[in-house]
């Protein structure tokens, strides 16, 4: 037993599969997304990452006496668009509030957030797992400023020190709170993936988790299957990768089931995920929810979003990834998997669509983008937005293959040159004489020479070993330096040999 009067996790035996099968997890996520503004939410300090500590600061974000916040219009517009991407109802009026708590990297002693009147409410995100679709509710989206960052690993003169960097203090965030609709770690992972893609597609945030631009807290409880009442909720704080979200939730489900099966109570706690052990560990134990003593921010007027403003922002938004996936399937005939890959990022989707529109075969264009191009870019450490091959050139390459002017082998040869030279595939083909030979007159001479030089294989074919024609086709291709049309060669050889 521990000082809290219940069994320690170390003393628990992990539950059996039969025990786990009796329970249903209930999961909700709180996701903080840093908005892609150039300046902070209430002042003009830059939001650039990686600067020297405590240099992107001013009297407002340092909370010096007399400094007053001024709300960033850019942050509000990105927050509205983010809310619309989550199908939320954007409220006409929302109120900023002071959320009071003490932490060394929170210079004001409170966080400017929104409480009972948030920016937006009642949205959803659709996910799909193994062909089954499910809608996850979004309770609310509210705006707030971020705290600074504390580091606890500094040593000086053999003493341990903590350091505070306030560069991040005041960067604009939206907090996206889900309904407790998820029932597995896989559903949580899918929800996060859809959310991240939506924020990136509309340009609300880069969502770079290594830079802290997307952070997640998971609320997890368990209950017997069929029970209507939720179990006691445990919060896992500061999960900084999708994988850690999944692993942290999975461990916490097992830990809570083990407690219940051992006759113990699950206590309301805040826990951290230990990457090294793969376990959640106690951060703080709380009997009741924290009282942040919210009250309206006296230095900020209510935020009013008119229907005209909202409509103007909605009109500027690009197509959402879920819509684009469905359109790629219906318009270009892609498989669902291919459509998912090609809409992982907006840059990838934009590139593919331009290539497909420049080609007569959208499926072949998809294969080139996902295969040869992505492989070459990965090998070079580049993203699709850094591709040396314009999408229209890739579409033209597909067109040349489709028309029979290029074989697959020649197309790959030209593709390699396109990576190094800013030329169209047709320009390279004509310059280097790489056009596929389909003219029967030109092929006839090469075929005669090959047959004359391979009488043994000719006799084998005539005696019934027809598979030897593959060897003869290969010899013609070799003699033509790979430029002969394989289909035409096969037909002409068969006609000649059969005659």
Biggest β-sheet, characterized? 9 strands, mixed
- Any idea what the radius of gyration is? 31 Å
Spatial arrangement of strands, main beta sheet: 2-6-7-10-1-11-12-13-14
| Average pLDDT over all residues | 90
- Structural domain tally: 3
Helical content stands at: 25-40%
Poorly predicted tracts of residues: 1-7
* N-C termini distance: 92 Å
Number of strands: 16
Number of helical runs? Answer: 16
So what's the overall shape?
Answer: elongated
Structural class: alpha+beta
Percent in strands: 15-25%
Model description:
The structure is a single chain. The protein is of the alpha+beta class. It folds into three domains: about 300 residues, no CATH class; about 110 residues, no CATH class; about 60 residues, Arc Repressor Mutant, subunit A (Orthogonal Bundle). The chain is about 40% helix and about 20% strand. A nine-stranded mixed β-sheet has the order 2-6-7-10-1-11-12-13-14. It is elongated.
Summarize the topology:
Layout: H1 17-20, E1 23-34, H2 73-85, E2 89-90, E3 93-94, E4 96-100, E5 110-114, E6 120-129, E7 132-145, E8 149-156, E9 159-165, E10 172-178, H3 185-201, E11 214-224, E12 234-239, H4 242-261, E13 269-274, E14 279-285, E15 295-296, E16 303-304, H5 307-316, H6 321-332, H7 336-342, H8 346-357, H9 362-379, H10 391-402, H11 408-420, H12 425-432, H13 440-453, H14 455-462, H15 469-479, H16 486-498
């Amino acid at each position: 037993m521990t000082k809290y009067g219940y069994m320690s996790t170390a003393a628990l035996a992990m539950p059996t599969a039969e025990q786990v099968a009796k329970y249903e997890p209930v999961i909700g996520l709180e996701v903080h997304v840093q908005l892609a503004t150039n300046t902070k939410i209430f002042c003009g300090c830059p939001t650039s990452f990686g600067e020297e500590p405590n240099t992107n600061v001013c009297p407002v974000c340092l909370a010096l006496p007399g400094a007053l916040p001024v709300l960033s219009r850019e942050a509000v517009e990105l927050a509205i668009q983010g809310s619309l991407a989550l199908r939320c109802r954007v409220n006409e009026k929302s109120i900023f509030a002071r959320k009071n708590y003490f932490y060394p990297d929170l210079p004001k002693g409170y966080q400017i957030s929104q409480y009972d009147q948030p920016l937006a409410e009642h949205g959803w995100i659709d996910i799909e797992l193994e062909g089954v679709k499910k809608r996850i509710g979004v309770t609310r989206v509210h705006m707030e400023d971020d705290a600074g960052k504390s580091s606890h690993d500094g040593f000086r003169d053999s003493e341990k020190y903590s350091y505070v960097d306030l560069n991040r203090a005041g960067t604009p965030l939206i907090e996206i709170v889900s309904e407790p609709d998820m029932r597995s770690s896989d559903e949580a992972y899918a929800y996060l993936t859809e959310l991240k893609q939506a924020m990136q597609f509309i340009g609300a945030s880069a969502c770079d988790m290594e830079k802290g631009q997307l952070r997640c807290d998971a609320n997890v409880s368990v209950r017997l299957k069929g029970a209507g009442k939720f179990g006691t909720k445990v919060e896992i704080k500061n999960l900084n990768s999708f994988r850690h979200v999944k692993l942290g939730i999975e461990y916490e489900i097992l830990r809570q089931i083990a407690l219940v099966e051992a006759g113990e109570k699950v206590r309301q706690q805040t826990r951290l995920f230990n990457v090294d052990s793969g376990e959640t560990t106690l951060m703080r134990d709380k009997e009741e929810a924290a009282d942040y003593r919210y009250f309206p921010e006296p230095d900020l007027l209510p935020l009013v979003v008119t229907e005209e403003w909202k409509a103007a922002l909605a009109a500027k938004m690009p197509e959402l990834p879920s819509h684009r996936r469905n359109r790629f399937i219906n318009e270009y005939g892609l498989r669902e998997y291919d459509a998912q890959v090609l809409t992982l990022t907006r840059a990838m989707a934009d590139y593919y669509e331009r290539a497909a529109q420049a080609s007569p075969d959208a499926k072949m264009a998809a294969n080139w983008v996902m295969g040869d191009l992505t492989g070459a870019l990965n090998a070079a450490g580049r993203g699709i937005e850094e591709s040396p091959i314009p999408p229209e050139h890739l579409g033209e390459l597909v067109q040349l293959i489709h028309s029979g002017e290029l074989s697959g082998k020649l197309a790959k040869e030209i593709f390699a040159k396109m990576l190094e030279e800013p030329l169209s595939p047709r320009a390279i083909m004509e310059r280097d004489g790489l056009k596929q030979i389909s003219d029967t007159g030109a092929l006839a001479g090469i075929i005669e020479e090959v047959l004359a030089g391979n009488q043994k294989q000719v006799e084998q074919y005539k005696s019934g070993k027809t598979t030897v024609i593959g060897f003869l086709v290969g010899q013609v291709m070799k003699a033509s330096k790979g430029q002969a049309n394989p289909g035409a060669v096969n037909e002409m050889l068969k006609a000649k040999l059969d005659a």
